[in-house]
Fold each of these.
Amino acid sequence: ASLASGKQWYQRRVREHYYITNNLRMALRTQFQNSSEIGVFSKLTNSYCLVPVAECEAFYSVFEGELADFIKVVHTTIGGCRIIGSLCVGNKNGLLVPTSTTDKELQHLRNSLPDSVKIARVEERLSALGNVVACNDYVALVHPDLDRETEEVLADTLQVEVFRQTLADQVLVGSYCALTNQGGMVHPKTPIEDQDELSSLLQLPLVAGTINRGSGAIGAGLVVNDWIAFCGQDTTATEISLVESIFKLSDKGPNNINQMRSVLVESMTS
């Protein structure tokens, strides 16, 4: 097991080095059919990507064109639904799916994902797990009313430390936040004091921002891992620059964050 995990760690470092040295770290626009809320229909981690089974070749080709050489892109449904980003939550270590997931779908995921990824099916009243949990490979923010048993399964399966949290008084933290091991973006109305407190708690740089031309539903319009991001088609150039900066996907660095945040605020209030 340790040999396999060491090999996977090495492979991750190789592909990250490839992206960095070839200046390929970036954020790309796409849409699912006519929807820019691509985070509702996909799940991206450092070790796999999930996309729905549907007739949308343009959507798949963007993901597979960028990811297929590095991580597995898996076509699936959850409970027969295509909104897989809203229904599941995962990271490089594991994947949590709701009880609506069929035995056939669960077996397909087990057969398709890397052996190192643990998969758990949980009975949770808040069954849209992707809307109520935001995580990276080390920490997770969860809806304040998430079941304690679900929290324990989440911590064990994803190997994360769990924090119950709201963002700008929004309980759907998965919908209004995106986290990687590099940084995080939160709802645009999150007070700066709350951002600083949360940043200290998570040990991550955070910024308040928008996606899809002013939307605060960050998690619904953006999927991102440690080296690449996919944004909804409506995302503006300023929003993409902020994404690339806070998640360290370009050489722009963090120095431009305050300037870009000011531009976003001005565009929202004008």
Amino acid sequence: MQNSLAIAGERTTGAEVRTQNVTAALSVANVVKSSLGPVGLDKMLVDDLGEVTITNDGATILNQLEVEHPAARVLVQLSEMQDKEVGDGTTSVVILAAELLKRANELVKNSIHPTSVMTGYRLAMKESIKYIKDQLIVKTDKLGREIGFQIAKTTLSSKIFGRESDFFANLAIDAMAMVKDVNPDTGKTFYPVKAVNIVKQHGGSAKDSRLLQGYAMFGGRAAQGMPRYIKGAKIALLDIDLRKTKMAMGVSVRLRCMH
């Protein structure tokens, strides 16, 4: 007696499903393609509640879309990862990935095995990285402030506060200059991005943002009578709990002198 496992649904394999996946990826790329570059167009997105979002940022556009196809979802996740890791290039990475899939599908149709196509792509990636490192990389110290400002301004032009790109680009350049450091062993200059902390505060406009020399953290006053501003304050950094601890067996500790 043969045991058979029944699975509900339809199974599609071969060139048909591969073409469907590539078509779905190209459909996602076509949505954001017209928003790429300095002359890119903004998209108006309306959700189920009627809230309108106007943007040309690739990650924002794809997040607002309800993409159900698994292959298309991969491109949406790729855009989200690009936005999280780099902060820019969300549209470019989707268009580039879709074009690579399109060309790969054409190669597979010409009887080239998918494994060979993937091997070729990996080899091309290594050669591209090598060429960029050898020919195109310019050290940060040689760029100067003006070039860094233009790069930051271009990055911010597609964001929500693109109109204030000059203001926030200056903030970003000044912040990175503050955390600039040199490795004593190698002598290389590096900029620890995680050393820059962003504290969000309600009640002001975007241009009320400011850069503080030092460390800023969000915290509220425990009581209304506490001062709002203290000059020359001494700060204690403790790794213990300051709450009163109940001693065992009725033992109590009283502090009479703080010297």
Amino acid sequence: MALTDDTTSTSSGSAANVAGAITALSSASSTIKNAWENSGAKDVIATASSNLPQGTQDTISLAKEKVFNRKNLRSPTVFFGIGEEQPFYVEKVPSLIAERARHNLSFFYLNYVGVTTILFFLTLLISPSSIIGIGLLGGAWLAVIRATNEGSVQIKGITVTQKQASIAMGGLSVLVLIWLLSHIFWMTLFTSGFLCGVHLLLRDASMHKDEEDKVVMQGDLSLEVGGDGIGDEEEASFLNNAAEVSLS
């Protein structure tokens, strides 16, 4: 009976600790969100983005459209081959292994980026000092953006343009991030490289190779009949408006 009471007390204590941790995280998230909205940082970043050279803005837009297009993010069903007869197996022919790796890399690259990003943030959670450092670095960037909002800033009589300040902060940020995140970076790179490499070599996604070649065809097909005198023209309903044909 005493053992049962102790077990119940331990379970209740664990549940209370979990609930307290969730409450603390929710409170911290709300506080951070309110501080972000009240700081005006969103407006500052929007202003800084609009001040970027047109060529830079075009490059960013093109990267978002081509490289980071959400259409290239495969669903978990496709990524893991759920419902397929044999989605994973070991290929033994070198040429077929190379072809599989090439196709999977081009087809699932955005999923691999997502896996690496998730692992990075999960690894980051075990390093509070890195989180604090990144927060301070973000604050420094906001301060620089605010100071150079009008195009330049005076520092001890020296005029520093927004571009010069951004370049200096970029270099400093690289050094700080290397110092803060070097162990996290290598841990994430090794873990994600192993997991994505296994998926790259074992996932058979050959049935999705022709997905980009789909062409929507609709309308009626008119067939002319030859010189046997049976008829001049035969009307055939070829495809309805909702049909899609995959051309190999």
